[in-house]
Amino acid sequence: MARETEPLTSRYFVVANLFGVASLMPAILVLYGLFPDWSLMYLANPSHLSGFLIVPVLVLAAAGGPALGFLAIFHALRQSKTWRRRGPWVVLWALAGVILLFGGGRILTVAYYDAFHTAGARLGLFQSALFLPLMLCAGAVVSVYVYVVMHVKRHIEMGRGLPTDR
Q: Measured between alpha carbons, how far is residue 91 from residues 80, 87, 96 in Å?
């Protein structure tokens, strides 16, 4: 099987887009519909924003996130030097570590936007009504992701026995 040279026309780009549309978009929209303050608490105060503005932005973020991630990884893997391949992963893990180190306590709390940013009253995530919907959405997203990865691996294995056109 020939290697894909054009990322935008590869089947894996389509898979990344379908993953965003089929799993992330519904999860993000459900969580925003149930808990708008929590969904945007790091970015904006939802009471000051129009739903006509927020919903399209959330849809674009959910649909575009996996596609942009695919393109970034595709570009990194095409680099000839090892440090260019590993660099994005090192940066990603370092940023995740910094977020957990300095923001771990805040990640596990829920509050209205103003209370969150002014150190007002916060509620632990495990005691809030948000916990169950968040776990259900996360479980659905992870299930779709695992299914997609298994399907792609099966597709790659089936293609290995086919003759190449080059």
A: 18, 6, 9
